[in-house]
Structures are given as structure tokens and as C-alpha cells.
Design brief:
single chain; 159 residues; alpha/beta; Nonspecific Lipid-transfer Protein, Chain A; six-stranded mixed beta sheet; 7 helices; globular
Length: 159
């Protein structure tokens, strides 16, 4: 294994309520490099919603979290104990995201769903649980830049 190659592990595969969450976790496990910018200990929730109405009611159809560990990532069912943020995604967005084949492509599509949300095509949102600067220091800012959510370094500091 290369020194900078990340590993992935899905904990308790049978605990996911929906087929789309199972597919998404398998996809993320195939591409742990998506999380390479995050520091050790970063932990955040992925909440999947079947409609904007469900999102407004904070009623996801499934939720799991990703922990950045020393060697890569761990994907676990349910909410993280003290998550950094929640990434809320529509099922339609997830269906398209799991068809990407590279970190850059995944990040750019994620950015599109954030910048141009559409109830039919797909949408995502971020609910921050920690201060913006803390999240940037943890590596989330670099990912947001890759995704086109933050356009440049100046955006990072004006979030």
C-alpha cells in the first residue's frame, strides 16, 4: 500500500435503512480519497432526504457518518456523537453522485447541487455544527474550494 493511499471501512453494513444509503456508502468506501483533505478526527453526518419537505421537517430517510481516521475513513450508520457538520442530500443528488468516477468530478457535481439546487435534478445543503474557521482548519475549506462552493481563498475567510 502506498503511504498516502487511504483505506476505507464500512461499519455494520446491515444497519442502513435504505438501499440508496447502502449504495452511497459503498461508493464512498471505493473513493476514500474524497476525504483526503480532512484532518484526523474529522467526523460528519450524511443525511439523505426524499423531498425538500422532509428536509424542512428534519426528517431524513437515512443517516450515516464518516470519520477520518489515521489511515482513511470509517463509515458508520446513524449520527456522529459530535459531528462537525451535516451534509444534507436529496436522493436524486445521491443517485447522480454515485455515478462519478473521480474525486474532482464528485466534488464539482456536489458543488453544482449546492450552487444550483433543484428539487428534481438534486440538491445538497450544509448545516455547520462548528465555527466556520474551525471547519476550514480541519480541511473542509479545501474540499469546498474543489467543489466550487468556495470560489477562492478570499471566500474561505469571508464565510
Amino acid at each position: 500500500m502506498l503511504e498516502n493511499e487511504l483505506t476505507s471501512q464500512i461499519i455494520d453494513k446491515d444497519a442502513y435503512k435504505t438501499e440508496i444509503a447502502k449504495k452511497y456508502t459503498l461508493f464512498l468506501a471505493q473513493y476514500p480519497e474524497i476525504f483526503s483533505d480532512l484532518i484526523f478526527g474529522s467526523n460528519f453526518d450524511f443525511a439523505l432526504y426524499d423531498s425538500l419537505e422532509a428536509y424542512d421537517k428534519e426528517s431524513p430517510i437515512d443517516i450515516f457518518n464518516v470519520l477520518r481516521n489515521r489511515n482513511g475513513i470509517e463509515i458508520k450508520p446513524g449520527k456522529a456523537v459530535d459531528s462537525d457538520l451535516e451534509l444534507a442530500l436529496s436522493v436524486n443528488a445521491v443517485k447522480k453522485l454515485i455515478q462519478t468516477t473521480a474525486k474532482q468530478e464528485y466534488a464539482q457535481l456536489l458543488g453544482t447541487f449546492y450552487d444550483d439546487p433543484d428539487e428534481v435534478q438534486g440538491w445538497i445543503d450544509f448545516i455547520l455544527h462548528k465555527r466556520t474557521q474551525t471547519l476550514i482548519d480541519m480541511g473542509y475549506g479545501k474540499f469546498a474550494q474543489t467543489a466550487g462552493i468556495l470560489k477562492d481563498d478570499d471566500d474561505i475567510y469571508s464565510m
